[in-house]
Amino acid sequence: MAQCVQSVQEFIQDSFVPLVAALCSEEAERLTRKNNLSFAELVKPFCRLTSEVHMRDPNNQLHIIKNLKIAVNNIITHPPQPAAIRKLLNDVVSVSQPAEGLVANVITAGDYDLNISATTPWFENYRECFLQSMPASDHEFLNHYVACMLVVSSSEPEPVEQFLKLSQEQHRIQHSTEYLYPKWFIPNTLKYYVLLHDVSTGEEQRADSIYEEMKQRYGTQGCYLLKINSRVSNRGTDEQIPDPWSQYLQKNTIQNQDCYEDCPYTVISNKSSDHLISDGLDNEIEDGLPNNFKTHPLQLDHPSGSLDSTDYTKAATSSQDSKKSNSGTPHGACLTLTDHDRIRQFIQEFTFRGLLPHIEKTIRQLNDQLISRKGLSRSLFSATKKWFSGSKVPEKSINELKNTSGLLYPPEAPELQIRKMADLCFLVQHYELAYSCYHTAKKDFLNDQAMLYAAGALEMAAVSAFLQPGAPRPYPAHYMETAIQTYRDICKNMVLAERCVLLSAEILKSQSKYSEAAALLIRLTSEDSDLRSALLLEQAAHCFINMKSPMVRKFAFYMILAGHRFSKAGQKKHALRCYCQAMQVYKGKGWSLAEDHINFTIGRQSFTLHQLDNAVSAFRHILINDSKQPPAQQGAFLREYLYVYKNVTQLSPDGPLPQLPLPYINSSATRVFFGHDRRPAEGEKQAATHVSLDQEYDSESSQQWKELEEQVVSVVNKGMIPSNFQPTQFCLNRYSDNSKFPLAVIEEPITVEVSFRNPLKVPLLLTDLSLLWKFQPKDFNTKHEGETKELGMCDGAMIGTEAIAEFLINSEETKVARLKLFPHQTGELHILGVVYDLGTVQGAVTLDGIDPSVGLQTGKFVSNGLSVRGRQDLEIQGPRLNNTKEEKTSIRYGPDRRLDPIITEEMPLLEVFFINFPTGLLCGEIRKAYVEFVNVSKCPLTALKVVSKHPEFFTFGGNTAVLTPLSPSASENCSAYKTVVTDPTSVRTALLSSASSVDFGVGPGGQPEVINVPLPDAVLLPGASVQLPMWLRGPDEEGVHEINFLFYYESIKRHSKMCHRVLRHTAVICTSRSLHIRATVCRSNALEDEEGRGGNMLVFVDVENINTSETGVKEFHIVQVSSNSKHWKLQKSVNISEDKDTKLASRERAKLCFKAVRCKNSEENYTFADIVFGNEQIISSASPCADFFFQSLFTEFKRTHVQSHTHASQRAGKQSVDETVRLIQRCSEVDLNIVVLWKAYVVEDNKQLILEGQHHVALNTVGKEAFSFPQKQELPEMVLLKFFRPENTPAPARPTPEQLSNLIKTSLHYPESFSHSFHQKSLCLVPVTLLLSNCSQAVVDVMIDLRHKTTSPEALEIHGSFTWLGQTQYKLQLKSQEVYSLQLKACFVRTGVYNLGTPRVFAKLVDQVTLFETSQQNSMPALIIINNV
What we know:
With about 1450 residues, this protein is of the alpha+beta class. Helices cover about 30% and strands about 25% of the residues. The strands form twelve sheets. Strands 12, 23, 25, 27, 29, 32, 37, 39, 41, 43 and 44 form an eleven-stranded antiparallel beta sheet that branches. Helix 4 (about 80-95) packs across helix 9, helix 10 runs antiparallel to helix 12 (about 415-425) and helix 18 (about 530-545) runs antiparallel to helix 19 (about 550-570). The model is unreliable at about 255-325, about 375-405, about 845-860, about 960-975 and about 1210-1215 (pLDDT under 50).
């Protein structure tokens, strides 16, 4: 239970006080009325005695009474109606609310910190009121009147007669059968005669003389002269007299003030209280007895109507009004402080001289009667020990006892006399004597099975035992238990049971037995009274929280129950308070359903009490926490919320838009897109893919686009990237770099994609959904700044705003809305959030498959009419900063500016369309397509460029129109190449032409990735379009290729903010296998041609058809092989086969052989040599053949250049050694590129198509095989890890044996057959010339050794039969490029075929030490036939 102002002893003493009736004459009542008080009210504040009182008990022992209080009441002849008492109690509770600004008690229990009101004044007021308004009953005498004051005014003509009248009246009320109410303690009630004298108007002498007469008649002990109204009303009002009445009268809020006007004997209840009591007593009393007394002021017009479960809000307000009027009326206006003292003195005198002696005398009389009746010689008091120590009668359990609550004793029955004596002793605090009497009475009643009487005795025995000074015995709680059970179950009297519970709970609380107190309080909650149940449950909750180890959840649970019962009793404020206190426990602990219930109730109660903001926030909580409620319940919550919100907004229609809690917005997922939506493809035309909101973000590709843009910008700015360069971002999202203000172009839409999530299981309907923004116009060319326009929903002239009429989000769905703005002015735009009407759909129909981007026509969904307009802000947190030490140690976030675009001046806008663009190609296939460029803006564009990571994939043709074929129809089969019909005689010999790489954009230091688009006049005017041819070549690797094109263009005018624009296109090409080409080059061993000393070479080209048949390719024809080089050219084909055309079916392979010769050295131009196999020459030095060749050359160069770059650093130190090595290396280097041109015959849909294409092979080294497509590197096998540092001393660079073997080229010149007559001469001598040619630019030492090296018998068979004559070793020195011929003689002794290739040639550079053997002679055996003649 909560803390109380009074101690438990004070509480019980004040609950049971001697009752004194007051009967006043009309004139006396008029005197007190001057002070707005009745007589009973006048004396009320002074009814507590300030000093101790002494009286003697029956044994003549002195007994001290402390702090005695008496109650003076007007006589009321009708018991109060239960309904009236209910209403009174209800009003008392509703008026008593927690004080404003009251500091709550903070209780810490476990991890809970609870703010709880420590006191509950409404409960104490209720309790006081309840105990005071209890009707008197026959089984106990505690609230029977002990005495009666008869009050008469001194101004009456015959005061003594008036006293007589009043005395008779009192006698009639007490003893006549027509009055059953009120109840009187004993037949001879003490009468006390009071003469009321008005000092301001009355004559003092007369009053004194009447008083003297009274003393003669009634004795000095039985009468009193009370002087009041000393204060003259016209005296200065500045004198402040305290008003001790207000605190007593404020509780009496529903008193009917009119009832004093016309009644001779005023009947006022001083009892104030407020609760719903079902009174089990005295219901047999009939209404409307004829008497002069007003009915009870608590009487209602409809006593039968139960006030329970009705809404008491009106009652509460009316009671508050009367409270105001009450406090507004001054009480005791005619009384001075002396008068106050006089009244206090009067009560003291009355108690000392009249009341207590009367009670003392009565106790003695009762004691004597009892002793004589029981036949005992001593007083009861001395006999108690004997009774209680004697053998006890075993008490029967309640269930055994018959229901005898109806048993009535006659008034003079000895059992009742004991009870009467006990009650009198109790009232004057003689608890020991009271206890023994109650105990005796209890036994008698139980023996008679008079259960109502027994319960009363048990109840008071328990209380007396508790109150005994020095606590000789423990509090008998079981007495109370039995009493409560009896009252409730047998007597069916809830009022008495409730009194028992209130007393016992308070006693248990004082003994810190909170658990027992709580059980007791909970046990009395029942359906018959919501207010009582609510108050008791609340006290039980306080018991749980006040325990040694607080039971927090139990506290909360009972608080909720109390709140519920308060709500049923119409006590809305108390209900709300209970729920709020319980909420502290459930909040944020995962009790989601409980939290929802509490919030919902708080919302409803707050709404009823017009606390709309609280209501809104409570409903908001239900909706925004992930609710586990069923859909129907969520729908109900949502509707309530909308209803409450609507009421709030109607109060301030012009106020700012409220922030709505639904649907959730994932702010970080907001995407902003600048520009128009992409056009779909039309027929053969395919629009550039560009960027759209439907594409997923890919960090890798966005990085590639950024690099491409940087590349083209650096080319345009002569290799530098400007400092203010900002990569173009069309779509900003959570992954993009949003640290700078994005740029948007005037008149181009800005699309904001907002991600909504509906957390509820019911659909939400957003209507009239649009963006909220503010705009600051600025002209970026001048310094003047415009004013800021806030929330420009209204101002369509600056920014056009598109609204979505209806946007439905189904249950638990995440859905994006794309909202557009159309800027019509330059300046700074800030997108703040979204604004919409939130509503629900009737019947909560789920409509799936509705695309939000489609403009929904209005009225597609039936709204249930309840919607509120509100906003939600888009607040995006930037990325966490992590660069400096300071940022790493603290948590800081950078800005995210994706919603703050700068609107810039107008810019050109390019659209690109691809016509006949293929999706599938063979590797190396050449196809011609067209590109259409359209300027859709109002300004001309220029400087159009395209950049790609794969420049080898496409070309727009060369720089010169001559090199670019006009139209494909110029040749048969619509070839993409430039062709010339060939002369049949020139077959297999080379047709020469030349071209410079600069013509094809692959100049020295150029960036072939950045390609200028050849626009006519280099400008595209507004609205103009131009179509250009574009050749494509299928990538060499099979598979799916994504190729990115970035088109770059500028405006003719220079802008401060935006310098250029870009357009992206990603082409997806699927390539399938075609041909695989391998080529090698080797030196020809034949003697030199007349062409000179450069030496010839043989080129072997191996072509294999690796196409798999599913692509429908029937066969490939090799139509032409071309070479291009600065130093070499193909001269002729040396194929053995006579077949003109080389056809390859699937998996077939052809070998071609060509002779290559040196050509005139030219630094710039490449010599192209075409060897034609068909009847059309493809001019390989023109577009597109040369374009693709030069681009492949560049990519090859880039690849090898990167590798060679890594070694460059190591080379720097050994310059001199390096040069010689370089000389040797150069001997074996060739720089010859082969282009194989082919046609493929494809059958598709029963039609034959001819595809054409080209493959490139770059030959760099003699004897090393080269491929048209780089071979995949085999992964090295796993090797053991070595844990030591390699020594960082690179070995001196040395030429490889292969390179050295190529230094000297050797060839033997001799007759193929030689006839000799061995008969004539046994030795045959044949002259042989050994030609040595130095291939390098250096001086070479050569050593020729003619001795046979081999020792194997097979070799001897061949060689052993001939020998070289003359010198066996020659040492020569050959100058750069020198050819030396050495004359040798071979000697044979018989006929046969001999191999002359036995001389071994060793070579070394002059300054080198080691010799290396040249490997030339191994290439081909030099066979000679010796014939005999």
